[in-house]
């Protein structure tokens, strides 16, 4: 299990700006990143993933802060390593979609390769156990990520995005793309982000069938459905008008899955053959704990898993006052 979703959670907590979504929090408030790493481990994560998502050359160019590229990456790795060391969990590096890759333009391939090489280099120097390459919409870009991770002699988890149409932007089906990555040596392949449990689940079985390496599933915990299969596609008819009518990314709250939906997804995905679990943007520790428990685990946070038996109105325990139990239907 690997807890993710750092961007959205730290944005909600007021330490990261939505939009460019660059994790400057790593330098400005490392203690908040440390705390969230610990909370995800407490809730069941086996991996502490360095918060270097979007901490690449292109994003820092866009916000005009190229100068913090290396310090940000090194600090993120250090913060994650400290928590992994302190909790006995795995320590993972992270590279992701660049926004630069263009299948038709070989110059962009060189640029992407350079971006991945510097980030994977810093991760290798920090002593990561493996590198997660994630949120790739192009198979071509995922291949480059995998190539660079393998050149560094590191194990890899390579994750693709299944968008509105479940094919890569370079036109490959998810099973074929995952199979291609597995054949090129990826240790784990699968899907992350963008789709919620209901619209990611049907894609998983065919991927499991297509590959002989472990398959990963890290949906966003939002109630996507057949008509609106991604969190970008969700539309909220609620009372407050939204900019462009879009709840993504800062008004998705009404669509958040509750923990039991996450547990249900976990059991179904496991039955479909998924072996690497996690949650992406929007996830909070209670979701992760539900996932862990659905896998039969009892992470430290399970000590506080719900027990309504002594609730003042809903509890069935004889110590609960009867008058309050009877008042339940009038609440
Ligand atoms: Zn995500």
UniProtKB/TrEMBL annotation:
Q: Which Gene3D superfamilies match?
A: Homocysteine-binding-like domain
Q: Can you give the residue ranges of the Hcy-binding domain?
A: 1-295
Q: Which PANTHER family does the record match to this protein?
A: SLR1189 PROTEIN
Q: What is its EC number?
A: 2.1.1.5
UniProt organism field: uncultured Actinomycetospora sp
Required co-factor(s) are: Zn(2+)
Descriptive protein name: Betaine--homocysteine S-methyltransferase
Q: Which UniProt keywords apply?
A: Metal-binding, Methyltransferase, Transferase, Zinc
Question: Is this entry keyworded Methyltransferase?
Answer: yes
MF (Gene Ontology)? betaine-homocysteine S-methyltransferase activity; zinc ion binding
């Amino acid at each position: 299990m690997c807890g993710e979703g750092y961007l959205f959670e730290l944005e909600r907590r007021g330490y990261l700006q939505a939009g460019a979504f660059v994790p400057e929090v790593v330098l400005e408030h490392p203690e908040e990143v440390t705390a969230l790493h610990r909370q995800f481990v407490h809730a069941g994560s086996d991996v502490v993933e360095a918060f270097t998502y979007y901490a690449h050359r292109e994003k820092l160019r866009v916000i005009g802060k190229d100068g913090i590229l290396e310090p940000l990456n090194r600090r993120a790795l250090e913060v994650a390593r400290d928590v992994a060391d302190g909790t006995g969990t795995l320590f993972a590096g992270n590279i992701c979609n660049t926004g630069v890759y263009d299948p038709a333009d070989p110059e962009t391939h060189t640029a992407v390769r350079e971006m991945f090489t510097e980030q994977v280099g810093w991760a290798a120097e920090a002593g990561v156990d493996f590198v997660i390459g994630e949120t790739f919409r192009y198979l071509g870009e995922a291949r480059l990520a995998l190539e660079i991770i393998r050149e560094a002699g590191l194990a890899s988890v390579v994750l693709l995005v299944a968008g509105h149409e479940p094919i890569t932007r370079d036109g490959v089906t998810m099973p074929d793309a995952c199979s291609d990555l597995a054949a090129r040596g990826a240790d784990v392949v699968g899907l992350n982000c963008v789709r919620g449990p209901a619209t990611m689940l049907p894609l998983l079985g065919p991927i499991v069938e297509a590959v002989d390496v472990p398959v990963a599933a890290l949906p966003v915990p939002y109630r996507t459905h057949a008509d609106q299969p991604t969190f970008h596609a969700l539309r909220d008819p609620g009372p407050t008008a939204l900019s462009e009518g879009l709840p993504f990314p800062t008004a998705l709250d009404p669509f958040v899955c509750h923990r039991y939906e996450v547990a249900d997804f976990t059991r179904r995905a496991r039955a479909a053959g998924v072996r690497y679990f996690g949650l992406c943007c929007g996830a909070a520790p209670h979701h992760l704990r539900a996932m862990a428990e659905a896998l039969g685990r009892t992470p430290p946070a399970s000590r506080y898993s719900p027990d309504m038996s002594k609730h003042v109105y809903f509890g069935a325990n004889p110590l609960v006052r009867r008058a309050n139990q009877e008042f339940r239907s009038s609440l």
